[in-house]
Amino acid sequence: MRTLTRVIVIEALVICLFPSQLLGQRFLSFPLADSSSPVFHGWYYDLTWYHGAIDYKAAVGTPVFASADGIAMSSSQPPVATKDTYGTFVLVKHPNGFSTLYAHLSAVAPGIASFPSDQRSNSTFGSWTPVKRGDLIGFVGNSGTTYDHLHFEAAENNVGTYTGHVQGRVDPYDLNGTATSYPPAGAKFNGCGPNFLWLTCPVPSSFPLLVISTATCAEGGSCSSPQGTTFKFFGVGFTFSGVVHRFIQDVSGTNTELLPLLSADRSGQISWSFTSSCATVAGSYSIFAIDSTTGKQRTRSRR
Amino acid sequence: MTIAPAASAALGTASGTIQLRKEKRDPNDRAEGDEPPGKLLPQTLNVTVNVWQQFVDPNLGIGIKFPSSWHVQTIPNSRGSSLYIAENTEEFPGKGITVTKSPDTVLTAVGELQSSLQLLSQDQRTFNGRMWTIYLFSEASTGQQFIAAFSTSPGTLYEVGGKVNSSVGAVFLQVLSTVTFP
Questions:
Q1: Which partner from A24, A60, A154, B38 sits 20 to 30 angstroms from B158, CA to CA?
Q2: Inter-chain contact A45–B82, Cβ cutoff 8 Å?
């Protein structure tokens, strides 16, 4: 088993607080496989012009995944000369009173319930299609717009219909800013707002990555490199005796908390490791740890 | 001619026709060939009156009027708060008018906009005694045009903006002309 040595100093701070009353609203996974997809427009086109959604740059045909469990339907908004409609979209009604909408699609995944445009605000939920987090629901396109991207919206929507969605839009990052405010590459990104809806606040692209390449497993259940690699980390600047949460973000953008919880020593350091296995999907993983006392993240990785 | 809807007038659009009737007057003033008194003049004038609703926001310190078929909502902005005024039927977001108050200067705000947008033109208008500088921008990668109007008070910048190629474009200046600072 080979140990990969890497030393990455992280200067950026991410403020991701975990007030218990908000945890129930943190339920979204990234809708694209590449969680580093750049944000083209944020909640505002610029602070002078409201946008009400997040636009991710992605090529036509890129798969789009359900951000959480729910029931889904597809429809479209009739075209207009100015080409600023949703075009073809999928709406997912989640059981927690929120909904998500994925617009400008080039195609909808087979099996998703489809309604004609004039029935886009239907409430016949029994005929919608149950979907699970990460299920394929459609493909990026440019319907209803002039350029290729995924227009992603979240909404507080107790009604659950399309009309309820468009009346309840909220910024899933709770940043309410322009593209430069958003991860992964936004120059002004410094963590999410307190009411973000993602499972965990996305981390800047400068955070440590575990790059695990195609499987090359040895006999007998043990893996040779690259899968089976043990990645070791240490963190500095954490609160002495405070609780530290550790997360790994997989190739689909899903964050998984690693247990057990850690507690920093008197010097404010933690040390830990993550070992991939034969079953670990190849790709790039982000890794980060959060001081629950301060909400700040400081990580340094090492052998 | 001035048409003044009553304060109790229903919001909406009223259409009608104005036709003038010649009134009686001193017979000594009547010249040969004049229409006889009391006769309707044949020319008519079609008139449409839009009775708009008014919204006053104490946080922003402004009043603004907009069509009866639009609604206003407060939306969060990383610089404070904004008003967003759009048609009641809006589905795809962003076709309305955004009103923002910030501590920036016009120079700073326009400079930031120019980092990602191309400045196409600039103009100045005065409404209700307030000078507005109006900019037209274009986003190169999408062709989308945006219009923004800026007016300053000491330490405060007011911004009113919208997409040009949307339903807003036609009424942007009309809405801007109703902004007051009570």
A1: A154
A2: no
